[in-house]
Design brief:
Helix 12 packs across helix 13, helix 24 packs antiparallel against helix 26 and helix 29 runs antiparallel to helix 30. By secondary structure, this protein is α/β, with parallel strands linked by helices. The protein has 35 helices and 17 strands.
């Protein structure tokens, strides 16, 4: 029962009416009353609080008859808070729409529960006849996926007539583009300086511009570099820009300099419409010796409620599922959940091992981590939102922005990865996933141990959440060449200015203009000059023709020659940088546990994994990789003989051979670690296949084209050698152009391959897919979802027709 009595509530209302800064106390009271369902005892005072402090969003918690009574007495004032996306907004929300109307550039900092995205969508819907081209820039594919589906629904149900896509394209017509920073650069390349045609650019999760000390300064893995570059670019070119950031209320000198330079207005909204209860381990009974056992113990108690379990790394998620499976009660799968499980079982489970994601679904639990197919992550969130599963185990891939309705969070760690502490922003973002305005007014955070509890309390209460923009300050850390390119000299140290001058002098010697090098925006000017110089010194006409032929093999996906062509370009890049005295570790930075581009014997490992990937069959790909690893493992051990039972006994042997990476696939007892093979497959697809390979190939192609233009006055036919096509080829698959709309929606390649083999073209698919025996029931459900959001019927009509 709520501890709030009528007198306490009345006192808080009076106090807040005299002290406008104390509105948070009223929100906290309302949340507690609605959480305990005791608000009915004080309904008149609840009405007064909602009206007096303009908290009309809280009408969502009232029953229909209660809401009608309230609206009858407050009809005129409440109407001004009525919206399209949400029925009613709270104080401080709709006023932001006026701010956006009256200012070209805004930076909004607000809590995760404030409704920043809803306000942006409200602005778009209110101005749908004036806003034709919109770009959303988001740091992760997970955020893009969530917003994409949401926009499809609004587009259909409100007759907005936007073309919504993840793909960079020409700026014409009515379009909404959802782009990562890397794809935004490609958009810029296509349109050059035509960003002035864009009516609105929204950069979400602006805090990603910060470069943590824990992060590598290498170009490939530190995406904050590109986020900062994009933040500067859109501030200079776009008509209207809205930057969104959670919790960053304190203005640092560097952010003040950024905002002053680009005429950006800062708005802070500190009100939290959803409360959080941080629960220490001694406030609840938790059984178990370790984190996985304790988590399972808590889940048993909370099974009937909506839960999120945060884990720092994938291994703990697997352990939790294994223990839950051992202790869990059998559940009966039915409907969409059953068909989804059967789809996973048939397409992802190899005979020796059940993939932990499939095992979790069998137990009514979801796992959401970064290296997983888009459609699987989306389905897990959808099943969770529709109450078909009650628990979802997540990493920061989820907590960085995916929104869902959860009552409880089990926080197993305040770290990400093995040993990287969550910053204050990261932690607040993480616990911000629990509780959701108008659904769950209070989110419970169960801390698994005392250390976790103490850290959460410390960071939640600290007033140190700030945002630095390294482009606008001097720092002690040695900057990368990429940073030097985009920074004003006033923020550089003398040695950095000298480095920058040396690069500019090399550019002059090569007779290249700044406009010439305004290409391949993912890499530094120094890298561009290195590759250009290599081409200039090495390439004969025959060598030029060889590279043209190799690119045609890549773009045409010629079977039998593709892997060799891929290996050729990466070997050429390696040779170019080594010829200029650059260590390959700078060119191909590699984090622990990742498969390197080349091994010590100069074998192109990514080519081998790509060969497995293009099979289009996850099970076969993983099995092929297992066979390859076992061959390499046995080959090395066969040279020395003997029987080994512990990994520690052979680590030095493999290290001397330069093959220590092979031991990642084995447990300490030298048993095959099947989970590692799954993890590597999906990591390769998301990190190497969809990011690193197009990163390098588009860089190579852009400089190759520049070289031909400057040295031979030769213009390459863009339809024949196109950087965008290379990017899409690797990010979305060989069939991405033919079935572009399906891949945009997230239909997986395993499904598209079946459609292709049946010789069914996209225009005919809608009539034929329900009768295709090649598709399983879940694949047909996905296609139904696609057509329900892309047909002329409303979404509700489609659902009713299906029922």
């Amino acid at each position: 029962m709520s501890s709030i009595n009528r007198f306490d509530l009345l006192c808080k209302i009076n106090d807040a009416s005299l002290n406008n800064d104390n509105i948070q106390s009223i929100i906290d009271c309302l949340n507690e009353l609605f959480y305990d369902n005791t608000y009915k005892k004080h309904l008149d005072l609840v009405f007064i609080a909602i009206s007096l402090f303009q908290l009309y969003g809280f009408l969502a918690y009232l029953e229909d008859d209660e809401k009608n009574i309230f609206l009858n007495t407050d009809i005129w004032r409440s109407l001004s808070y009525k919206g399209i996306i949400l029925d009613y907004y709270n104080r401080g929300q709709l006023s932001l729409i006026n701010e956006l109307e009256n200012n070209n550039k805004l930076l909004l900092s607000a809590p995760t529960s404030f409704g920043k995205t809803s306000i942006i969508l409200e602005y778009i819907l209110q101005n749908k006849t004036k806003i034709n081209i919109i770009i959303f820039i988001l740091p992760t594919n997970s955020l893009i996926e969530e917003l994409y589906i949401k926009l499809l629904r609004y587009n259909k149900n409100n007759n907005l007539n936007y073309k919504i896509t993840h793909e960079p394209d020409r700026l014409q017509g009515r379009n909404i583009f959802l782009l990562t920073p890397e794809r935004f650069f490609m958009m810029y390349q296509i349109n050059k300086n035509n960003l002035v045609k864009v009516d609105l650019i929204v950069m979400d999760e602006m805090y990603k511009i910060r470069a943590e000390d824990k992060e590598s300064r290498d170009l490939l893995n530190n995406r904050s570099f590109r986020f900062r570059k994009v933040a500067d670019m859109i501030a200079k070119y776009a008509k209207k820009v809205f930057y969104l950031s959670p919790f960053t209320y304190n203005d640092t000198e560097s952010m003040t300099a950024f905002m002053k330079e680009n005429n950006v207005k800062k708005i802070n909204r500190k009100i939290e419409f959803v409360n959080k209860k941080i629960i220490s381990p001694d406030k609840t009974i938790i059984m178990g010796k370790n984190k996985s056992e304790k988590t399972v113990s808590l889940l048993k108690k909370l099974r009937k409620e909506k839960n999120i379990v945060y884990v720092s790394a994938r291994d703990l998620a697997s352990e939790i599922i294994k223990k839950f499976d051992e202790q869990g009660d059998e559940i009966e799968l039915s409907g969409r959940l059953k068909e989804f499980y059967l789809h996973l079982k048939n397409n992802y489970v190899i005979s020796e091992y059940e993939w932990d994601v499939a095992c979790a679904i069998r137990n009514g639990i979801g796992i959401y981590i970064a290296p997983m197919p888009r459609y699987i992550k989306r389905e897990i969130v959808s099943l969770y939102e529709n109450n078909e599963i009650s628990t979802i185990i997540v990493t920061t891939a989820f907590t960085e922005g995916v929104n869902c309705n959860a009552k409880n969070m089990i926080l197993t760690s305040t770290y990400t990865g093995k040993n990287i502490p969550l910053s204050q922003i990261d932690l607040l973002n993480t616990i911000g996933r629990v509780g959701r305005f108008s659904k769950e007014c209070i989110g419970n955070i169960y801390c698994i141990d005392d250390d976790t509890y103490k850290k959460v309390i410390e960071l939640k209460n600290a007033d140190s959440c700030y945002l630095e923009n390294d482009n606008y300050r001097k720092i002690d850390i040695i900057r990368s060449d990429y940073e030097l390119d985009m920074m004003d000299n006033s923020f550089l140290k003398e040695e950095e200015i000298r480095r920058k001058k040396d690069i500019e002098e090399e550019q002059l010697r090569l007779k290249l203009l700044n406009d010439d090098l305004n290409i391949s925006l993912n890499v530094s000017k120094r890298w561009k000059l290195i590759l250009y110089k290599y081409f200039k010194h090495v390439l004969t006409p025959d060598e030029i023709q060889l590279r043209k032929d190799k690119f045609n093999i890549i773009l045409n996906s010629q079977e039998g020659q593709f892997k060799d062509a891929l290996s050729f370009f990466f070997s050429d890049l390696r040779d170019a940088f080594e010829m200029m005295g650059i260590n390959r570790r700078e060119l191909f930075p590699n984090r622990n546990g990742e498969v390197p581009a080349f091994d010590r014997n100069n074998q192109f490992l990514w080519g081998r994994l790509y060969g497995n990937y293009v099979l289009g069959d996850v099970k076969k790909s993983i099995q092929n990789n297992i066979k390859y690893i076992m061959r390499q493992y046995n080959l090395i051990l066969g040279e020395i003989g003997g029987v080994f039972r512990e990994k520690k006994d052979i680590e030095n042997i493999f290290k001397k051979k330069g093959s220590e990476w092979i031991l990642q696939y084995f447990t300490q007892k030298l048993e095959l670690n099947y989970s590692k093979f799954y993890s590597e497959y999906f990591k390769f697809v998301s990190f190497v296949m969809e990011y690193k390979i197009p990163f390098y190939l588009t860089f190579y192609l852009s400089i190759f084209n520049l070289f031909l233009k400057k040295e031979y006055d030769e213009v390459i036919d863009e339809n024949r050698m196109n950087e965008k096509d290379i990017m899409l080829l690797f990010e979305e698959g060989v069939l991405s152009l033919e079935y572009k709309k399906l891949t945009d929606f997230g239909i997986p390649m395993i499904t598209i391959n079946k459609i292709k083999k049946c010789n069914i073209e996209l225009p005919q698919l809608q009539k034929e897919y329900m009768n295709m025996n090649e598709l399983d029931s879940y694949e047909k459900m996905m296609l139904y979802d696609y057509y329900s959001l892309n047909s002329t019927e409303s979404v509700n009509d489609c659902v009713n027709r299906q029922d």
